[in-house]
Amino acid sequence: MRLLLTNDDGVYAPGLAALHAALAGEHEVVVVAPETEQSAVGHAITLADPIRVRRLGPRTGFDGWAITGTPADCVKLAVSELLPQAPDLVVSGINLGANVGVNLLYSGTVSAATEAAILGLPGVAYSLGTLKDPDFAYAASLAAHLVGLYPSLGVPRHVPLNVNVPALPAHKIKGIRFTRQSGARLVERFLRRSDPRGHIYYWQAGETMGTEGDLDTDYPALLAGYVTITPVRHDLTHDEILSRLGGLDLQLPSER
Fold it and tell me: What is the C-alpha separation between 94 and 90, in angstroms, rounded?
């Protein structure tokens, strides 16, 4: 298959290199990734600044481009300008850290796969569930296995998949579960500091995740040692409430 590979950790991230190494032997892989880290930019796109493009050199080991934009920019620019033809699949990752629960709204990794869906292309996002001492080898091997299986899954092109892999030895991973997005959300804390001129600033100093949900949802299943696969969508409409509101007879205010 023709694969477009991107991420949000930047073109020199080890997760990207591991994923490229696992895929390049069986597929035609082109990298279009951010020049610098773009974690937690969500689905941002660049409008007020030019997007600069740099062809990747031999030392990267990649065929492709580094760009100064966001993950969504990478997919847009690759499909519309950089690639001679559309990819068969957009693959994003491997992200350092899980993308589960409310994190999906912040994630540049997931947003790259979602941008593919918006453009009518299939997309998959991969994340490894740790921020410390990551070993991407098994996650990359699993990602390559799932990419090979992707055509047989019957997933519509407008539905990207969000895959999270536990940071465990392969023999301790219990299996694969298809899950819903959980309600787990970040609980942040901020450290207040003052610079030498007395100006106040804050560092986001730490975060924890709630564990709401059961093994049918992404974060609890990931914590229990399962690879989780969640089909997601970019339509944010709440259909049930829309139906209820549609039954209301709201009137415009009278003219004064």
Answer: 13
| Three-state SS annotation for the chain | CEEEEECCCCCCCHHHHHHHHHHHCCCEEEEEEECCCCCCCCCCCCCCCCCCEEECCHHHCCCEEEECCCHHHHHHHHHHHHCCCCCCEEEEEEEECCCCCCHHHHCHHHHHHHHHHHCCCCEEEEEECCCCCCCCHHHHHHHHHHHHHHHHHCCCCCCCEEEEECCCCHHHCCEEEECECCCCCEEEEEEEEECCCCCEEEEEEEEEECCCCCCCEHHHHHHCCEEEEEECCCCCCCHHHHHHHHCCCCCCCCCC
Q: How far apart are CA 162 and CA 121, in angstroms?
A: 15
Annotate 195-213 with b (16+ C-beta within 10 A) or e (fewer).
eeeeeeeeeeeeeebeeeb
User: pLDDT of 33-83, one tens digit each?
Assistant: 999 999 889 999 999 999 999 999 877 788 999 999 999 999 999 999 999
- All structural domains of the chain, each given as residue ranges with its CATH number in brackets, are 2-182+213-246 (3.40.1210.10)
Pairing status of strand 123-128 against strand 89-96: parallel
Beta-carbon contacts of 166 under 8 Å, excluding residues fewer than 6 positions away, are 129, 172, 173, 222, 225, 226, 227
**How far is residue 92's CA from residue 123's CA, in Å, rounded to a whole number?**
8
Q: State pTM to two decimals.
A: 0.92
Is 119:79 a contact under the CB 8 Å cutoff? yes
